[in-house]
């Protein structure tokens, strides 16, 4: 990001970041991801299936995720797992969000200058 660029809506990219974070260690199905986000954020962030599934489909289309259909207790579910490209994407997103959080904390704590997000 150049110094003249503005930051888009701060929530843009949050579902993608959270989904890739959850899927970096194990495969999960959509509703399980919805519940995990709610549980792990103490319900501060609660996204519905209407947000999660379009993100999952977009990440799969981009090659960041792979999916497979699996039958569990007589129910057919689609499980998603991160690919190497997805893990690289997660690394970049994590770095950007960490820089953003540090910059916001600097303002909240009264810091005079914050590092620009690159």
What would you note in describing this structure?
- This protein has 118 residues and is of the alpha+beta class.
- It has a domain at 14-86: Arc Repressor Mutant, subunit A (Orthogonal Bundle).
- Helix content is 50%, strand content 15%.
- It is built from 4 helices and 3 strands.
- It has a 3-stranded antiparallel β-sheet with strand order 1-3-2.
- Helix 1 (14-23) packs across helix 4 and helix 2 (30-40) crosses helix 3.
- The longest helix is centred in the C-terminal third of the chain and has 25 residues, at 84-108.
- It is elongated, with a radius of gyration of 16 Å.
- It starts with 13 loop residues before the first helix and ends in a 10-residue tail after the last helix.
- The model has no long low-confidence stretch (mean pLDDT 87).
Secondary-structure element pattern, one letter each: HEHHEEH
Strand order of the largest sheet: 1-3-2
CATH structural fold name of the domain at 14-86: Arc Repressor Mutant, subunit A
CATH architecture of the domain at 14-86: Orthogonal Bundle
Fourth-tier CATH superfamily name of the domain at 14-86 = Winged helix-like DNA-binding domain superfamily/Winged helix DNA-binding domain
What is this entry, summarized?
The protein is built from four helices and three strands. It is α+β, with helices and mostly antiparallel strands and 118 residues long. The mean pLDDT is 87.
Features:
about 120 residues; alpha+beta; Arc Repressor Mutant, subunit A; three-stranded antiparallel β-sheet; 4 helices; 3 strands; elongated
């Amino acid at each position: 990001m150049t110094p003249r660029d503005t930051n888009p809506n701060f929530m843009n990219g949050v579902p993608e970041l959270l989904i890739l974070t959850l899927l970096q260690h194990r495969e999960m199905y959509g509703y399980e991801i919805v519940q995990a986000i709610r549980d792990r954020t103490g319900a501060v962030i609660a996204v519905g299936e209407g947000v999660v599934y379009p993100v999952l489909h977009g990440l799969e289309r981009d090659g960041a995720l792979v999916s497979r259909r699996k039958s569990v207790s007589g129910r057919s579910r689609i499980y998603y797992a991160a690919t190497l490209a997805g893990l690289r994407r997660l690394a970049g997103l994590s770095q950007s969000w960490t820089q953003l959080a540090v910059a916001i904390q600097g303002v909240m704590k009264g810091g005079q200058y914050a590092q620009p997000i690159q």
